[in-house]
């Protein structure tokens, strides 16, 4: 009950207890507008992913997934779509044979006779709520998207684990050891943030090819492990850990790796959680680097596989929306489990 009341108490609290201040109104408007700005595109994508292909491009668009009602008419090989037709002030339900410009050829679906020509402005489609589950089933069964999904999970998981481990060790050395040039090394690492990605992309690809990791998932993972942002985030947080803890562990004959593994890492958990969220977002949504490194379809990640639905003359939006919405689920799950560490981790990096 307290967990339910806390958000309500937070959203309804006011600057002054006796009356509502203008800043309260502006805060509520800002929160409401921000929520809509984030939520509406996600809801729209989710509902559109359940629409048939023809309904996604229909204008004016509809919010709920609907599909045209079709009926088998004698004398025609394929089912015909049903339309509400207004003729001489009378509305009838008829089937469309074909459409030529601004005229449509319509027949009575019960007793079809010679088609009659009507103005398209006087007809409206007969629709019903329809959930197009094939938008999800077809890519997963016919287009190897389960393989793409497995590759993305592998790349994201392994890259995140290695990113946490490698950058935590670098941050530990830069924050708790004193050696000649330690500040210079840290400045050089941070200065790499100013190097554009396009500058290092070609040399990085040549290195990947040279070590034989082209068209390999490890070629996607290894070049992205070291991150100056991660080193900065973890180093600033580790500076808040008292040096006396490390000295006490050394007195107890603890090795340096034992100090790092059993003392520093547990105390740095909030910052590691923040970095884990960032790393999952970076790896899961990465498109350009996997597109450059990977050539074989069986090695494609999810984002590269989505590009297969975009051709030169047509785009299969129903498949793209379905798989895009599906790709949001792992990131959302990670964020839900780790979001409580975000405030603690980011706030701690600015201390000391």
TrEMBL record:
GO CC aspect terms: plasma membrane
Signal peptide start-end: none
Gene3D superfamilies given in the database record: MetI-like
Membrane topology term: Multi-pass membrane protein
GO biological process: transmembrane transport
Keyword list, A-Z: Cell membrane, Membrane, Transmembrane, Transmembrane helix, Transport
Chief location category: membrane
UniProt cross-references to InterPro entries, sorted A to Z: MetI-like, MetI-like_sf
ABC transmembrane type-1 domain sequence ranges: 149-338
Keyword flag Membrane: yes
Keyword Transport: yes
Membrane-spanning parts: 21-44, 153-174, 186-211, 217-238, 259-282, 317-338
Pfam family, one: BPD_transp_1
Subcellular location: Cell membrane
Family: Belongs to the binding-protein-dependent transport system permease family.
Protein name (database record): Carbohydrate ABC transporter membrane protein 2 (CUT1 family)
Organism encoding this protein: Rhizobium azibense
Lineage summary: Bacteria, Pseudomonadati, Pseudomonadota, Alphaproteobacteria, Hyphomicrobiales
């Amino acid at each position: 009950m307290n967990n339910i009341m806390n958000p309500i108490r937070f959203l309804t609290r006011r600057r002054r207890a006796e009356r509502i201040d203008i800043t309260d109104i502006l805060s509520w408007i800002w929160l409401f507008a921000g929520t809509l700005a984030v939520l509406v595109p996600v809801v729209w994508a989710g509902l559109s992913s359940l629409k048939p292909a023809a309904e996604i491009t229909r204008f004016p668009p509809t919010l709920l997934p609907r599909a045209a009602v079709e009926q088998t008419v004698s004398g025609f090989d394929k089912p015909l779509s049903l339309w509400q037709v207004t003729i001489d002030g009378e509305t009838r339900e008829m089937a469309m044979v074909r459409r030529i410009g601004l005229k449509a050829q319509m027949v009575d679906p019960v007793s079809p006779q010679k088609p009659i020509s009507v103005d398209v402005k006087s007809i409206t489609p007969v629709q019903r709520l329809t959930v197009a589950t094939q938008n999800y089933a077809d890519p997963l069964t016919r287009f190897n998207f389960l393989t793409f999904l497995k590759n993305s999970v592998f790349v994201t998981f392994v890259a995140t684990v290695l990113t946490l481990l490698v950058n935590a060790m670098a941050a530990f050395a830069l924050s708790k050891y004193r050696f000649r040039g330690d500040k210079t090394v840290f400045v050089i690492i941070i200065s790499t943030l100013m190097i554009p990605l396009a500058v290092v992309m070609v040399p990085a690809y040549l290195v990947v090819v040279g070590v034989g990791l082209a068209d390999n998932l490890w070629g996607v993972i290894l070049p992205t492990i070291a991150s100056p942002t991660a080193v900065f985030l973890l180093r600033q947080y580790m500076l808040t850990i008292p040096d006396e803890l490390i000295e006490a562990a050394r007195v107890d004959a603890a090795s340096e790796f034992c100090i790092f593994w059993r003392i520093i890492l547990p105390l740095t958990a909030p910052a590691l959680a923040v970095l884990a969220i960032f790393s999952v977002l970076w790896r899961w949504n990465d498109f350009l680097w996997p597109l450059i490194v990977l050539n074989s379809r069986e090695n494609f990640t999810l984002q590269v596989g989505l590009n297969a639905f975009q051709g030169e003359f047509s785009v299969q939006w129903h498949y793209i929306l379905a798989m895009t919405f599906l790709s949001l689920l792992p990131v959302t799950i990670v964020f839900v489990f780790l979001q409580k560490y975000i405030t603690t981790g980011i706030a701690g990096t600015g201390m000391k």
